[in-house]
Amino acid sequence: MTLHLVRHGRPAIVPGVPAAEWELDPSAYDDVWALRASGRLPLRAAWFASAEPKALQTAQLLTDTEVGVLPDLGEHVRSGEWLDDFAGAVRRAFERPAEPAVDGWESLDACRERVVPAVRRVLEVHGDEDVVLVGHGTAWTLVVADLTGEPPDLDRWGALAMPDLITVQV
């Protein structure tokens, strides 16, 4: 079975509003459609998405099949304040996963405890089927580390595009 982890398309950023509430930027639709047309996603698979609007909208542009919504696939919870060094804050979160990197942020340990079991449940239910999960870069970095037994790949996290795809053989 192959697990396809899709990072959502580019959101319409609204400063002061938590990222979990952002919609997909309509000007990013072409990028999502390009991923759909790329042949990198399976023709037959079980599809699920985070409940966050940008992820669900990305999934709906990527497939004509039904997409299950799993709230536990949501991104690392972050408050709505704008950070000039967002990447640095996320890297601090990975350095100290038991602590929130910024006041109002979820710890990465808490994110892992929510996301990883949700992914493992999907994999158990779908046995040998390919699975596509549409969600978020930090959450997927935690999932890949758990499934592969490797440390989180922060270079790959930093290089992820919107949208992007990570595949894992499970």
3D structure, described in words:
This protein has 170 residues and is of the alpha/beta class. Helix content is 38%, strand content 14%. It has one domain (2-169): Phosphoglycerate mutase-like (Rossmann fold, 3-Layer(aba) Sandwich), CATH 3.40.50.1240. The chain has a five-stranded mixed β-sheet. 33% of the residues are buried. The mean pLDDT is 95.
Keywords:
170 residues; alpha/beta; Rossmann fold; 5-stranded mixed beta sheet; 5 strands; 38% helix
Question: Quick summary of this structure?
Answer:
The chain is an alpha/beta fold and 170 residues long. It has helices at residues 29-37, 53-62, 86-95, 108-125, 137-148, 154-159, and strands at 2-7, 46-49, 67-69, 131-135, 164-169.
Number of domains: 1
The third-level CATH topology is Rossmann fold
Give the amount of beta strand, in percent: 5-15%
| Distance from first to last alpha carbon | 6 Å
Radius of gyration: 15 Å
Q: How many individual helices?
A: 6
Strand order of the largest sheet: 3-2-4-1-5
In terms of topology, how is this protein built?
Elements: E1 2-7, H1 29-37, E2 46-49, H2 53-62, E3 67-69, H3 86-95, H4 108-125, E4 131-135, H5 137-148, H6 154-159, E5 164-169
Parallel strand pairs: 1-4, 2-3, 2-4
Antiparallel strand pairs: 1-5
Helix pairs in contact: 4-5
